[in-house]
Amino acid sequence: MSDIISIKEDVYYIGVSDSDIRTFDIIMKTANGTTYNAYLIKTDEGVIILDTVKEEFSELFFEKIESICSYDEIKYIVMHHLEPDHSGTLPELVRRAKNVKIFISPMAIGMLKSITHSDTMDFEVVSTGKVLECGEKRLRFLSTPNLHWPETMSSYLEDEKILFSGDVFGSHYYDERLFDNLVGDFDYAFKYYYDHIMRPFKSDVLNALQLYKRCEIETIAPLHGPIIRSNPQKYIDLYGQWSAKSQRSSGKKIASIFYVTSYKNTQDMAQKIYEGMESIEGVIANIYDLSALDEPSMLNILEESTGILIGAPTINGDLPRPAWELLSCMMLLEKRGKVGGGFGSYGWSGEAADMICERMKGLNFRVPLQPFKIKLIPTQEELQACYSYGVEFAEIIMGKIVEITL
Ligand code: FEO
Predict the structure, then answer these.
(1) pLDDT tens figures, 184-225
(2) Where does residue 51 fall: left (phi above 0), alpha (psi -120 to 50 degrees), or beta otherwise?
(3) Residue ranges of the chain assigned to CATH 3.60.15.10
(4) 5-243 in CATH: which number?
(5) CA-angle at 229, arms to 225 and 232, nearest 5°
(6) CB of 51 shorter than 6 A to ligand 1
(7) CATH superfamily, with its number, for domain 253-397
(8) What tens digit of pLDDT does each residue of 115-145 get?
(9) Is the CB of 86 under 6 A from ligand 1?
(10) Side-chain-facing half-sphere of 98: CA atoms under 13 Å
(11) Residue 80 dihedral angles phi and psi, to the nearest 5°
(12) 18 lines ligand 1 (CB under 6 A)
């Protein structure tokens, strides 16, 4: 058992490293590789396994388990998260540990069946308040959904004061020294991970932090990257700070227009819509030229805006790239409660505004108004219609008029 790392007495790290991976889940860069963390708790009455690893690393995972216990000793498996990087080895583990019971969150039932393809598996659904007692160990379950899948949960090993946080507080950062006080500087990876994985779920992060607050945490054992034991509160506070709601609007609602223009016609529309929105009390209207905005700025503005309008001309029957890029980066945002819409000047076919609205609906925005299009140069009457469109949109986000969902 010489190369098995102990986190606390009878609590072991049985995770694996993926040091060569440079892109995770298609969109994330992993300059330092990553780890798939899993843990094992040994008690007088049996063994608890917490999570498994990606399937391609199963050989090492099972070697680690076998160096600590026999499969007959494994009594329970806790699955905090069922994404394949953590559940890939579960089917084989269940084949080897025949009398095991699996603990999952309520949302995980269907996924567990799809992963194991078994109808006879012994599993129990758990949520906050449920405690697993095994020998002298007490593992308390905490419901932390949507971090970052619907079925995610956390648990807390009471006497050892270890929080098993799932992907929360994770980093794609491999360093064989494993513990935060021994590894290199992983601050960039910790923030990058938050921005790409947790940021769209800020409200759920805040809910989870409320639950974590009830635990005296000495060690955070996440599913990726360093185990945090030197100053867990620092990382908890960072999540709180990054997830806090913006106070800038002081009770008002922010409505933002992002436009891209080729012959200034869409820009003229945007300006009039802006003036219409700004005329409504309680609304702070913003207007931005997309061609001069970088992604971090866009994300901050999008995040604090309740209403988001995108304006673009149609070029070759399509939406120009800057508008697609804006729509694409919205996957990194919490969309709950946001209202969207699309507009633009066009020459021939005018699909851009439709595409904006359809994409926003796909992102779960409310899109109460029809795509708003004007052929080529707006007339004075059409500019007045732009103003009215802005007024109507602002009144909808203020709840002053009843919207009709399209
Ligand atoms: Fe690390 Fe969401 O899987």
Answers:
(1) 999 999 999 999 999 999 999 999 999 999 999 999 999 999
(2) left
(3) 5-243
(4) 3.60.15.10
(5) 90
(6) no
(7) Flavodoxin domain (3.40.50.360)
(8) 988 878 899 999 999 999 999 999 999 999 9
(9) yes
(10) 1
(11) -75, -20
(12) no
